[in-house]
Amino acid sequence: MNIFGSVIAGTLVTVFLINLISTLLNLRASLAPLPTEFRDLYTDEAYGKSQAYLRETSRLSLFSSAFDLVLLFVFWFSGGFNLLDQFLRGFALGSVMTGVFYIGSLLLLQSVLSLPFTLYRTFVLEERFGFNRTTPAVFAGDLLKTLLLSVAIGAPLLALLLWFFQSAGSIAWLLAWGGITLVSLLLQYVAPAWIMPLFNRFVPLEDGELKSAITDYAAGVGFPLSGIYVIDGSKRSSKANAFFTGFGKRKRIALFDTLIKSHSVDELVAVLAHEIGHYTKKHILIGMVVSIVNMGVLFFLLSLFIGNAKLFEAFFMEHISVYGSLVFFMLLYTPVEFILSIVLQMLSRKHEYEADHFAVTTYSRGEALITALRNLSRSNLTNLTPHPLHVFMTYSHPPVSLRIGRLRRTLESSRS
């Protein structure tokens, strides 16, 4: 094995071990007593259920990650990458189409082999803890729609990317960056109206107390309220959520029907105020800019490794290709991706705090956000005592106890 192979293999194992240590520390931290903040909300049985849910989901995640790593090494060192390449080259489809089928085949193989874990999580683990509402028909429909969208959107994008790097020379990374960015922005614009409704039904929030309260709040903070929708999240899970998607005239605020069913009007307006906080603080725009810059860096670094003979030698490849360069570079990129994900999680947690602050300082009943977070933590079986290392590495939202503590301090400060 040459230096590239050693670096990639070592990095993959190191990242797995770091995640393993983080998860084990998180499981040990979950044995802590129930935090004082939640003692009036949880029974011993309810808290024990949340701890059991964490144990089961963590074990499944670790087993799935270990399986993926072993599978990759077996495929790699048995010459699987080269065998697949030789097989597809036999069809004489041309380099771009061969590349589309090569990468598509690898992604399909990974999806098929991970399917048992998805099935177990959905129909066994989530069912056991009372979350699952997905029927086999809905599950199969989701798989089929995802596959069709991957073929209809992903395959042409991949072909365009491969063609750029094969034909455009030193400016290929710039063309790829610009082209993929434009398509990504277009998808962000059309997804709320054309793609997301393929999976869920979006119904405008009906007139009534909730809509009036939301409309009054939005007007008070000068938010251009273009659409509030109820999403039928209950057809897949009993878990509750809300989110902001799209931009411009296509932006949507979506409230899960499960959220509306289990929370008061004040709580729902507070949750919506949090989502509006993300928009007002330009978190969505910042996220898009960060993503675009990251994509540009990735394509530039990829351009430096296109056709690197040593990289292909590490994977026992007989032929050098653009599509092979893309696959092997992404494996080489693992440490950068790992570090970048931690940085992005830190940014996301910062944004969550800012959106919380916006909600409680602009909504006259901001304390309802605390009530909503407490109730959500109980209904979603949230881990109430996560380990700091696990939070640092994997949490996109601050732990609920820290969020509530900061919210209380903000409310006390605003009253004094």
Automatic annotation (TrEMBL):
EC number(s) recorded for this UniProt protein: 3.4.24.84
Main location (coarse class): endoplasmic reticulum
Domain CAAX prenyl protease 1 N-terminal: 26-201
Cofactor: how bound: Binds 1 zinc ion per subunit.
Record membrane topology: Multi-pass membrane protein
InterPro entries noted in UniProt: CAXX_Prtase_1, Peptidase_M48, Peptidase_M48_N
Binding-site positions, Zn(2+): 274, 278, 352
Record keywords, A-Z: Endoplasmic reticulum, Hydrolase, Membrane, Metal-binding, Metalloprotease, Protease, Transmembrane, Transmembrane helix, Zinc
Cofactors that this protein relies on: Zn(2+)
Cross-referenced CDD domains: M48A_Zmpste24p_like (cd07343)
Enzyme class: hydrolase
Compartment(s) where it occurs, according to its Swiss-Prot or TrEMBL record: Endoplasmic reticulum membrane
Any one GO molecular function term: metalloendopeptidase activity
Similarity comment: family membership: Belongs to the peptidase M48 family.
PANTHER family linked: CAAX PRENYL PROTEASE 1
Listed name of the protein: Ste24 endopeptidase
Top-level taxonomy: Bacteria, Pseudomonadati, Chlorobiota, Chlorobiia, Chlorobiales
